[in-house]
Design brief:
This protein has about 400 residues and is α/β, with parallel strands linked by helices. Helices cover about 40% and strands about 15% of the residues. Bound molecules: pyridoxal-5'-phosphate (PLP). Pyridoxal-5'-phosphate binds next to α3. Belongs to the class-V pyridoxal-phosphate-dependent aminotransferase family. NifS/IscS subfamily.
Length: about 400
């Protein structure tokens, strides 16, 4: 990476670790065989895929045959939700989710609504938490699926997944969680949590882009996702992305083996940044739960300024951050997550997300805190609203 850039956007994507790349490389060149072929370089690819499947299963406390590789986290979300909805249509047409899901979940649910399904979008509290009691109350005889994200990509809030899993199990309803932000940051065991389906994506934990996985508990009724060859036990046809899958396997193993040390470091950077911004910049609000939050996530609203201008000025100083989710930047609609936790449009527009990762250090925080308060001040000097507040009317 260009070392003049301080990258503070790990929730958007992460760089591939050198050890991960090294394991992937042979599968682009001399080990290029099709995993469905029976000669030796084909069998080698097949073996590499199955090893990666074992690594993913181990990281989640699942069985290898319950892991299915996909083309992304978004694909895993689409498959889980549409797959369960359609396969269980005879039983019911109701799905429960939340207002703060990633668009891969929200837009899939909206699509299903256009096809005759009924979806309940549960509200969240001011910290972005879903109440398990509300989940219980939303259940109807026609409910077939609960889909609630593990941790939010914008504000970092971690949901009470075990409690929700317990409720789903008591009611015999399938429970899917989008764990794309959680894997590598939070230890996960699908059996302890009573999760039936779980989505993950390699590029969020130092693996390659364009490869993900869906955990499907044995026995879950779900439609096949892609029709064609017999890959992924006939459920998701396509010649496998062998190198990508190998990279995902290596990355998840590294991430889960090192989770405690990694978290300790990120929490230090996070907490220091939260403290210093709160102390040095007036008129700010921390978004998301102060403690039930991803180790590397900082999300603040700065009153009287535009998040986009803040990002551009940080970029000029060599800092890459985000003003919400990467998928919505470029659009003028404020983040649906920030609106759901009760921010008004203006406050939601003035938000900044900083997500720390592997390469970040305390020097990065020093530099951020050297430039950020001055930028905020400069932008506020241009705001007529701020002038009014300063004058006290
Ligand atoms: C990044 C992300 C996704 C999408 O994963 P892709 O592999 O980029 O398609 C889904 N959900 C959450 C919470 C994410 O952060």
């Amino acid at each position: 990476m260009d070392n003049r850039i301080i990258y503070l956007d790990h929730a958007a994507t992460t760089p591939v670790k050198p050890e991960v790349l090294e394991e992937m490389l042979p599968y682009f060149t001399n080990k290029f065989g099709n995993a469905s072929s029976i000669y030796s370089i084909g069998r080698e690819s097949k073996k590499a895929i199955e090893e990666a499947r074992e690594r993913v299963a181990k990281a989640l406390g699942a069985m290898p045959r319950e892991i299915f590789f996909t083309g992304s986290g978004s694909e895993a979300d689409n498959w889980a939700i549409k797959g369960v909805a359609y396969a269980n249509k005879a039983k019911g047409n109701h799905i429960i989710t939340t207002a703060i899901e990633h668009h891969a979940v929200l837009h899939t649910c909206q699509y299903l609504e256009s096809d005759g399904f009924e979806v309940t979008y549960l509200p969240v509290d001011e910290n972005g938490l879903v109440s398990p009691e509300q989940v219980r109350k939303a259940i109807k005889p026609s409910t077939t699926l609960i889909t609630i994200m593990f941790a939010n990509n914008e504000i970092g809030t971690i949901q009470p997944i075990a409690e929700i899993g317990k409720i789903a199990k008591e009611h015999n309803i399938y429970f899917h969680t989008d764990a794309v932000q959680a894997v590598g940051n939070i230890p996960i065991n699908v059996n302890e949590l009573n999760v039936d389906l779980l989505s993950l994506s390699a590029h969020k934990f130092y693996g390659p882009k364009g490869v993900g996985a869906l955990y499907i508990r044995k026995g879950v009724k779900i439609t096949n996702f892609l029709h064609g060859g017999a890959q992924e036990r006939g459920r998701r046809a396509s010649t496998e992305n062998v190198a990508g899958i190998v990279g995902l396997g290596k990355a998840i193993e590294l991430a889960t083996n090192n989770i405690e040390q990694y978290n300790k470091k990120l929490i230090e950077l996070r907490d220091r940044t939260i403290e210093e911004i709160t102390k040095k910049v007036p008129f700010v609000k921390l978004n998301g739960d102060r403690y039930k939050r991803l180790p590397g996530n900082v999300n603040f609203s700065f009153q009287f300024i535009e998040g986009e201008s803040l990002l551009l000025m940080l970029d000029m100083k060599g800092i890459a951050a985000s003003s919400g989710s990467a998928c919505t930047s470029g659009s003028l609609d404020p983040s649906h997550v920030l609106l759901a936790i009760g921010l008004d449009h203006e406050t939601a527009h003035g938000s900044l997300r900083i997500t720390f990762g592997e390469e970040n250090t305390h020097e990065d925080v020093d530099y951020l805190m050297e430039v950020l308060p001055a930028i905020v001040q400069r932008l506020r000097e241009m705001s007529p609203l701020y002038e009014k507040v300063k004058r006290g009317n």
